[in-house]
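Sanity check. The docking grid for adenosine-5'-diphosphate depends on where the pocket ends up, so I'm generating a full predicted complex first rather than guessing from homology. Inputs follow.
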Amino acid sequence: MSSAPNRDQILYDEFVSRLQTRPSLMAVAPGRVNLIGEHTDYNDGFVLPVALDRDVRVLFNPRQNRRVRLYAVEFDAWAEFDLDDLTFSEEHFWSNYVKGMAWSLAERGLRLIGIEGIISGNVPRGSGLSSSAALEVACAKAFMAAANQLDALPGEQIAKAAQRAENAFVGVNCGIMDQFISTLGAEGHALLIDCRSLEYQLVPFPTGAALVIGNTKASRSLANSAYNERRAQCEEGVRILQSVLPGISALRDVSSAQLEVHKDLLPSIIYRRCRHVVTENERVQSTVDALSRGDLAEVGRLMAASHASLRNDYEVSSDALDAMVSAMSSAEGCFGARLTGAGFGGCAVALVKRGQEGAVRDAIFEQYAKAMNIWPEVYISTPSAGAHILALD
Ligand code: ADP
Ligand code: MG
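Predicted complex below; grid placement will be based on this.
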Protein backbone atom coordinates (compact mmCIF):
# COMPACT_ATOMS: atom_id res chain seq x y z
CA MET A 1 0.00 0.00 0.00
CA SER A 2 1.44 3.39 -0.87
CA SER A 3 0.99 6.29 1.51
CA ALA A 4 0.06 9.78 0.33
CA PRO A 5 3.12 11.93 -0.45
CA ASN A 6 3.78 14.45 2.29
CA ARG A 7 3.99 18.21 1.85
CA ASP A 8 7.81 18.22 1.78
CA GLN A 9 7.83 15.74 -1.09
CA ILE A 10 5.11 17.56 -3.00
CA LEU A 11 6.97 20.87 -2.78
CA TYR A 12 10.28 19.29 -3.72
CA ASP A 13 8.68 17.69 -6.78
CA GLU A 14 6.94 20.95 -7.67
CA PHE A 15 10.29 22.75 -7.57
CA VAL A 16 11.98 20.16 -9.76
CA SER A 17 9.20 20.22 -12.33
CA ARG A 18 9.03 24.05 -12.45
CA LEU A 19 12.77 24.77 -12.43
CA GLN A 20 14.27 21.60 -13.93
CA THR A 21 16.82 21.43 -11.14
CA ARG A 22 16.88 20.60 -7.42
CA PRO A 23 16.44 23.11 -4.59
CA SER A 24 19.30 23.45 -2.13
CA LEU A 25 17.61 25.42 0.66
CA MET A 26 14.21 25.98 2.21
CA ALA A 27 13.14 28.94 4.35
CA VAL A 28 10.19 28.27 6.67
CA ALA A 29 8.21 30.88 8.62
CA PRO A 30 5.05 30.20 10.63
CA GLY A 31 1.70 31.94 10.91
CA ARG A 32 0.52 32.84 14.37
CA VAL A 33 -2.39 33.09 16.73
CA ASN A 34 -2.60 35.59 19.56
CA LEU A 35 -3.47 33.84 22.83
CA ILE A 36 -4.37 37.05 24.63
CA GLY A 37 -3.64 40.79 24.43
CA GLU A 38 -6.00 42.14 21.76
CA HIS A 39 -5.96 45.79 20.66
CA THR A 40 -3.17 46.38 23.16
CA ASP A 41 -0.31 46.66 20.64
CA TYR A 42 -1.05 50.20 19.48
CA ASN A 43 -1.54 51.23 23.10
CA ASP A 44 2.12 50.37 23.84
CA GLY A 45 0.90 47.29 25.73
CA PHE A 46 1.52 43.55 25.89
CA VAL A 47 0.64 40.67 23.56
CA LEU A 48 1.10 36.91 23.93
CA PRO A 49 1.11 35.18 20.53
CA VAL A 50 2.05 31.61 19.61
CA ALA A 51 3.66 30.39 16.35
CA LEU A 52 1.49 27.81 14.56
CA ASP A 53 2.44 24.57 12.83
CA ARG A 54 1.24 26.19 9.60
CA ASP A 55 3.82 28.09 7.61
CA VAL A 56 4.96 29.67 4.37
CA ARG A 57 7.94 28.03 2.68
CA VAL A 58 10.40 29.26 0.09
CA LEU A 59 12.40 26.51 -1.62
CA PHE A 60 15.24 28.16 -3.47
CA ASN A 61 18.71 28.28 -4.97
CA PRO A 62 20.94 31.33 -4.75
CA ARG A 63 21.88 32.85 -8.13
CA GLN A 64 25.08 34.45 -9.29
CA ASN A 65 23.29 37.65 -10.31
CA ARG A 66 20.69 40.06 -8.90
CA ARG A 67 17.60 38.60 -10.49
CA VAL A 68 14.78 37.04 -8.48
CA ARG A 69 12.48 34.49 -10.07
CA LEU A 70 9.78 32.90 -7.93
CA TYR A 71 6.72 30.77 -8.59
CA ALA A 72 3.83 31.04 -6.11
CA VAL A 73 2.17 27.62 -6.00
CA GLU A 74 -1.17 28.79 -4.58
CA PHE A 75 -1.46 31.58 -7.14
CA ASP A 76 -0.08 29.50 -10.03
CA ALA A 77 1.97 32.51 -11.08
CA TRP A 78 5.58 33.50 -11.69
CA ALA A 79 7.09 36.80 -10.65
CA GLU A 80 10.47 37.93 -11.90
CA PHE A 81 12.30 41.10 -10.97
CA ASP A 82 15.70 42.67 -10.51
CA LEU A 83 16.98 43.61 -7.05
CA ASP A 84 18.06 46.94 -8.55
CA ASP A 85 14.56 47.70 -9.81
CA LEU A 86 12.01 47.05 -7.06
CA THR A 87 8.68 48.46 -8.19
CA PHE A 88 5.16 47.77 -6.93
CA SER A 89 3.28 45.14 -8.93
CA GLU A 90 -0.48 45.51 -9.45
CA GLU A 91 -0.62 42.23 -11.32
CA HIS A 92 0.96 39.93 -8.71
CA PHE A 93 0.08 41.46 -5.38
CA TRP A 94 1.82 38.67 -3.46
CA SER A 95 5.15 39.54 -5.10
CA ASN A 96 5.10 42.92 -3.34
CA TYR A 97 5.77 41.18 -0.03
CA VAL A 98 8.87 39.59 -1.58
CA LYS A 99 10.06 42.83 -3.17
CA GLY A 100 9.28 44.82 -0.04
CA MET A 101 11.37 42.43 2.02
CA ALA A 102 14.35 42.75 -0.36
CA TRP A 103 13.94 46.53 -0.27
CA SER A 104 13.85 46.79 3.53
CA LEU A 105 16.77 44.37 4.01
CA ALA A 106 18.83 46.43 1.56
CA GLU A 107 17.84 49.52 3.50
CA ARG A 108 19.42 47.89 6.55
CA GLY A 109 22.67 47.46 4.70
CA LEU A 110 22.43 43.83 3.57
CA ARG A 111 24.08 43.07 0.24
CA LEU A 112 21.60 40.76 -1.45
CA ILE A 113 21.93 38.36 -4.36
CA GLY A 114 19.21 36.90 -6.55
CA ILE A 115 17.31 33.68 -5.85
CA GLU A 116 15.07 31.39 -7.83
CA GLY A 117 12.51 29.05 -6.44
CA ILE A 118 8.94 28.42 -5.37
CA ILE A 119 6.73 29.76 -2.57
CA SER A 120 3.98 27.76 -0.93
CA GLY A 121 2.05 28.14 2.31
CA ASN A 122 -0.68 26.45 4.33
CA VAL A 123 -1.44 29.44 6.53
CA PRO A 124 -4.99 30.39 5.48
CA ARG A 125 -4.75 33.69 3.62
CA GLY A 126 -6.69 36.70 4.80
CA SER A 127 -8.08 34.97 7.89
CA GLY A 128 -6.13 36.77 10.59
CA LEU A 129 -3.46 34.10 11.15
CA SER A 130 -0.90 36.29 9.43
CA SER A 131 0.08 34.55 6.25
CA SER A 132 1.50 37.91 5.15
CA ALA A 133 4.04 38.07 7.99
CA ALA A 134 4.92 34.41 7.38
CA LEU A 135 5.61 35.21 3.72
CA GLU A 136 7.73 38.25 4.59
CA VAL A 137 9.79 36.45 7.20
CA ALA A 138 10.32 33.38 5.00
CA CYS A 139 11.58 35.69 2.24
CA ALA A 140 13.83 37.53 4.71
CA LYS A 141 15.43 34.25 5.74
CA ALA A 142 15.79 33.15 2.13
CA PHE A 143 17.48 36.39 1.04
CA MET A 144 19.76 36.37 4.07
CA ALA A 145 20.75 32.72 3.59
CA ALA A 146 21.36 33.18 -0.14
CA ALA A 147 23.71 36.08 0.55
CA ASN A 148 25.46 34.13 3.31
CA GLN A 149 24.33 36.71 5.86
CA LEU A 150 22.02 34.68 8.06
CA ASP A 151 23.58 36.16 11.18
CA ALA A 152 23.73 39.72 9.90
CA LEU A 153 20.56 40.82 11.73
CA PRO A 154 19.14 39.71 15.08
CA GLY A 155 15.57 38.38 15.11
CA GLU A 156 13.98 41.61 16.30
CA GLN A 157 15.63 43.53 13.44
CA ILE A 158 14.35 40.99 10.93
CA ALA A 159 10.87 41.47 12.40
CA LYS A 160 11.16 45.25 12.14
CA ALA A 161 12.41 45.04 8.56
CA ALA A 162 9.45 42.77 7.70
CA GLN A 163 6.97 45.16 9.32
CA ARG A 164 8.53 48.02 7.35
CA ALA A 165 8.19 46.02 4.12
CA GLU A 166 4.46 45.57 4.80
CA ASN A 167 3.85 49.17 5.96
CA ALA A 168 5.97 51.12 3.52
CA PHE A 169 6.28 48.91 0.41
CA VAL A 170 3.08 46.84 0.34
CA GLY A 171 1.12 49.69 1.94
CA VAL A 172 -0.68 47.73 4.66
CA ASN A 173 -0.83 49.16 8.16
CA CYS A 174 0.12 46.54 10.76
CA GLY A 175 1.81 46.35 14.15
CA ILE A 176 4.98 44.45 14.98
CA MET A 177 3.45 41.37 16.66
CA ASP A 178 3.02 39.13 13.63
CA GLN A 179 6.53 39.50 12.25
CA PHE A 180 7.98 39.21 15.74
CA ILE A 181 6.35 35.89 16.61
CA SER A 182 6.98 34.45 13.15
CA THR A 183 10.68 35.23 13.55
CA LEU A 184 11.20 34.52 17.25
CA GLY A 185 8.58 31.93 18.17
CA ALA A 186 9.75 28.66 19.69
CA GLU A 187 8.26 25.20 19.90
CA GLY A 188 6.30 24.67 23.11
CA HIS A 189 6.28 28.38 23.96
CA ALA A 190 4.21 31.50 23.73
CA LEU A 191 6.02 34.82 23.31
CA LEU A 192 5.33 37.75 25.62
CA ILE A 193 6.09 40.96 23.73
CA ASP A 194 6.23 44.42 25.22
CA CYS A 195 5.05 46.50 22.27
CA ARG A 196 6.66 49.65 23.71
CA SER A 197 10.22 48.48 24.37
CA LEU A 198 10.08 45.42 22.09
CA GLU A 199 11.53 43.38 24.93
CA TYR A 200 10.30 39.83 24.75
CA GLN A 201 10.27 36.65 26.76
CA LEU A 202 9.47 33.06 25.85
CA VAL A 203 6.79 31.61 28.11
CA PRO A 204 6.62 27.79 28.36
CA PHE A 205 3.24 26.48 27.22
CA PRO A 206 1.92 23.57 29.30
CA THR A 207 2.28 20.25 27.47
CA GLY A 208 -1.23 19.20 28.53
CA ALA A 209 -2.86 21.83 26.32
CA ALA A 210 -3.49 22.39 22.63
CA LEU A 211 -5.02 25.20 20.61
CA VAL A 212 -8.09 24.84 18.45
CA ILE A 213 -8.69 27.69 16.03
CA GLY A 214 -12.07 28.23 14.42
CA ASN A 215 -12.20 30.28 11.22
CA THR A 216 -15.65 31.91 11.05
CA LYS A 217 -15.26 32.51 7.28
CA ALA A 218 -17.37 35.60 7.92
CA SER A 219 -16.73 38.92 6.20
CA ARG A 220 -14.36 41.33 7.92
CA SER A 221 -15.60 44.33 5.98
CA LEU A 222 -16.25 46.45 9.08
CA ALA A 223 -12.84 45.79 10.54
CA ASN A 224 -10.84 48.61 8.93
CA SER A 225 -13.03 51.57 9.78
CA ALA A 226 -13.71 50.27 13.30
CA TYR A 227 -9.99 49.74 13.84
CA ASN A 228 -9.20 53.36 13.03
CA GLU A 229 -12.08 54.56 15.19
CA ARG A 230 -10.93 52.50 18.18
CA ARG A 231 -7.39 53.83 17.85
CA ALA A 232 -8.70 57.39 17.85
CA GLN A 233 -10.87 56.68 20.91
CA CYS A 234 -7.90 55.31 22.83
CA GLU A 235 -5.89 58.43 21.94
CA GLU A 236 -8.72 60.62 23.15
CA GLY A 237 -8.81 58.68 26.42
CA VAL A 238 -5.09 59.27 26.90
CA ARG A 239 -5.48 63.00 26.14
CA ILE A 240 -8.21 63.40 28.74
CA LEU A 241 -6.45 61.28 31.37
CA GLN A 242 -3.23 63.27 30.90
CA SER A 243 -4.93 66.22 32.60
CA VAL A 244 -4.85 64.28 35.87
CA LEU A 245 -2.07 61.77 35.11
CA PRO A 246 0.56 63.94 33.38
CA GLY A 247 3.14 61.16 33.32
CA ILE A 248 1.22 58.88 30.95
CA SER A 249 1.83 58.67 27.22
CA ALA A 250 -0.33 55.64 26.37
CA LEU A 251 -3.04 53.49 27.99
CA ARG A 252 -0.21 51.09 28.84
CA ASP A 253 0.71 53.51 31.64
CA VAL A 254 -2.74 53.46 33.27
CA SER A 255 -3.82 50.88 35.89
CA SER A 256 -7.43 49.78 36.23
CA ALA A 257 -7.47 51.34 39.74
CA GLN A 258 -6.42 54.72 38.27
CA LEU A 259 -8.99 54.43 35.51
CA GLU A 260 -11.76 53.86 38.07
CA VAL A 261 -10.67 56.90 40.10
CA HIS A 262 -10.88 59.17 37.04
CA LYS A 263 -13.80 57.46 35.35
CA ASP A 264 -16.07 60.52 35.56
CA LEU A 265 -13.76 62.57 33.36
CA LEU A 266 -14.36 60.31 30.39
CA PRO A 267 -17.40 60.09 28.10
CA SER A 268 -18.93 56.67 28.72
CA ILE A 269 -17.91 55.15 25.38
CA ILE A 270 -14.30 56.34 25.78
CA TYR A 271 -14.26 54.96 29.31
CA ARG A 272 -15.36 51.52 28.07
CA ARG A 273 -12.74 51.50 25.31
CA CYS A 274 -10.06 52.41 27.85
CA ARG A 275 -11.32 49.82 30.30
CA HIS A 276 -10.88 47.09 27.70
CA VAL A 277 -7.28 48.06 26.98
CA VAL A 278 -6.28 48.59 30.60
CA THR A 279 -7.81 45.34 31.85
CA GLU A 280 -6.55 43.42 28.80
CA ASN A 281 -2.97 44.43 29.58
CA GLU A 282 -3.50 43.17 33.12
CA ARG A 283 -4.98 39.92 31.77
CA VAL A 284 -1.86 39.33 29.66
CA GLN A 285 0.31 39.57 32.77
CA SER A 286 -2.06 37.29 34.69
CA THR A 287 -2.01 34.79 31.82
CA VAL A 288 1.79 34.65 31.91
CA ASP A 289 1.62 33.97 35.67
CA ALA A 290 -1.07 31.29 35.24
CA LEU A 291 0.89 29.58 32.43
CA SER A 292 3.99 29.48 34.60
CA ARG A 293 1.94 27.70 37.29
CA GLY A 294 0.43 25.39 34.68
CA ASP A 295 -3.01 26.65 35.73
CA LEU A 296 -4.91 26.05 32.49
CA ALA A 297 -8.33 26.66 34.06
CA GLU A 298 -7.22 30.17 35.01
CA VAL A 299 -5.81 30.84 31.52
CA GLY A 300 -9.18 29.75 30.13
CA ARG A 301 -11.03 32.12 32.48
CA LEU A 302 -8.79 34.98 31.40
CA MET A 303 -9.45 34.20 27.72
CA ALA A 304 -13.20 34.18 28.35
CA ALA A 305 -12.90 37.50 30.19
CA SER A 306 -10.92 38.91 27.26
CA HIS A 307 -13.68 37.91 24.84
CA ALA A 308 -16.38 39.47 27.05
CA SER A 309 -14.37 42.68 27.24
CA LEU A 310 -13.82 42.77 23.46
CA ARG A 311 -17.52 42.16 22.91
CA ASN A 312 -19.04 44.47 25.54
CA ASP A 313 -16.50 47.25 26.10
CA TYR A 314 -14.51 47.36 22.86
CA GLU A 315 -17.41 46.24 20.65
CA VAL A 316 -15.31 44.46 18.02
CA SER A 317 -16.98 41.04 18.16
CA SER A 318 -19.73 39.89 15.80
CA ASP A 319 -22.53 37.33 15.75
CA ALA A 320 -20.20 34.90 13.97
CA LEU A 321 -17.37 35.31 16.48
CA ASP A 322 -19.76 35.05 19.42
CA ALA A 323 -21.29 31.89 17.93
CA MET A 324 -17.82 30.41 17.39
CA VAL A 325 -16.69 31.18 20.95
CA SER A 326 -19.92 29.82 22.37
CA ALA A 327 -19.62 26.57 20.36
CA MET A 328 -16.02 26.12 21.46
CA SER A 329 -16.76 26.88 25.12
CA SER A 330 -19.61 24.38 25.25
CA ALA A 331 -17.30 21.46 24.41
CA GLU A 332 -15.83 19.19 27.01
CA GLY A 333 -12.15 19.89 27.54
CA CYS A 334 -12.30 23.56 26.49
CA PHE A 335 -10.72 25.78 29.16
CA GLY A 336 -11.72 29.01 27.46
CA ALA A 337 -12.07 30.72 24.08
CA ARG A 338 -11.94 34.20 22.61
CA LEU A 339 -11.91 36.04 19.33
CA THR A 340 -8.37 36.61 18.09
CA GLY A 341 -7.16 39.35 15.76
CA ALA A 342 -8.81 42.70 15.15
CA GLY A 343 -12.38 41.33 15.27
CA PHE A 344 -15.57 41.45 13.16
CA GLY A 345 -14.67 38.14 11.54
CA GLY A 346 -11.60 35.99 11.10
CA CYS A 347 -10.80 33.48 13.81
CA ALA A 348 -11.41 32.54 17.42
CA VAL A 349 -8.95 30.52 19.50
CA ALA A 350 -9.71 27.98 22.23
CA LEU A 351 -7.39 26.55 24.85
CA VAL A 352 -8.15 22.84 25.01
CA LYS A 353 -7.08 19.87 27.05
CA ARG A 354 -4.82 17.60 24.98
CA GLY A 355 -6.82 14.72 23.63
CA GLN A 356 -10.06 16.75 23.54
CA GLU A 357 -9.30 18.66 20.34
CA GLY A 358 -11.71 16.49 18.38
CA ALA A 359 -14.59 17.23 20.75
CA VAL A 360 -14.07 20.96 20.30
CA ARG A 361 -13.82 20.59 16.53
CA ASP A 362 -17.05 18.57 16.44
CA ALA A 363 -18.85 21.16 18.57
CA ILE A 364 -17.76 23.89 16.15
CA PHE A 365 -19.00 22.01 13.09
CA GLU A 366 -22.30 21.15 14.73
CA GLN A 367 -23.18 24.35 16.52
CA TYR A 368 -21.46 27.09 14.56
CA ALA A 369 -22.56 25.82 11.17
CA LYS A 370 -26.14 25.57 12.41
CA ALA A 371 -26.18 28.99 14.10
CA MET A 372 -24.57 30.92 11.24
CA ASN A 373 -25.29 28.85 8.16
CA ILE A 374 -21.61 29.15 7.27
CA TRP A 375 -19.25 26.20 6.98
CA PRO A 376 -16.23 27.04 9.15
CA GLU A 377 -12.67 25.75 9.05
CA VAL A 378 -10.89 24.33 12.09
CA TYR A 379 -7.13 24.18 12.67
CA ILE A 380 -5.59 22.28 15.57
CA SER A 381 -2.11 23.31 16.62
CA THR A 382 0.44 23.47 19.41
CA PRO A 383 3.06 26.21 19.77
CA SER A 384 5.63 25.65 17.03
CA ALA A 385 9.06 26.83 15.96
CA GLY A 386 9.82 30.28 14.58
CA ALA A 387 11.42 30.90 11.18
CA HIS A 388 14.38 28.80 10.14
CA ILE A 389 16.41 27.59 7.17
CA LEU A 390 16.81 23.95 6.18
CA ALA A 391 19.39 22.49 3.80
CA LEU A 392 17.63 20.14 1.36
CA ASP A 393 20.51 17.98 0.20
P1 ADP B 1 -3.37 37.48 6.68
O1 ADP B 1 -2.00 38.03 6.96
O2 ADP B 1 -4.31 37.69 7.80
O3 ADP B 1 -3.36 36.06 6.23
P2 ADP B 1 -3.26 39.49 4.62
O4 ADP B 1 -4.30 40.07 3.75
O5 ADP B 1 -2.48 40.40 5.50
O6 ADP B 1 -3.96 38.32 5.46
O7 ADP B 1 -2.18 38.72 3.72
C1 ADP B 1 -2.60 37.82 2.72
C2 ADP B 1 -1.73 38.02 1.48
O8 ADP B 1 -0.40 37.55 1.72
C3 ADP B 1 -2.21 37.23 0.29
O9 ADP B 1 -3.22 37.91 -0.42
C4 ADP B 1 -0.93 37.13 -0.53
O10 ADP B 1 -0.68 38.32 -1.24
C5 ADP B 1 0.13 36.97 0.55
N1 ADP B 1 0.35 35.54 0.79
C6 ADP B 1 0.04 34.83 1.89
N2 ADP B 1 0.34 33.52 1.74
C7 ADP B 1 0.88 33.39 0.51
C8 ADP B 1 1.37 32.29 -0.28
N3 ADP B 1 1.35 31.03 0.20
N4 ADP B 1 1.85 32.54 -1.50
C9 ADP B 1 1.87 33.80 -1.99
N5 ADP B 1 1.39 34.87 -1.31
C10 ADP B 1 0.89 34.68 -0.09
MG1 MG C 1 -1.54 40.05 7.31
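Relevant for the grid: The longest strand covers residues 49-62.
Also worth noting: Residues 56, 72, 74-75, 93-94, 97, 119-121, 125-132, 135 surround adenosine-5'-diphosphate (ligand 1) (CB under 6 Å).
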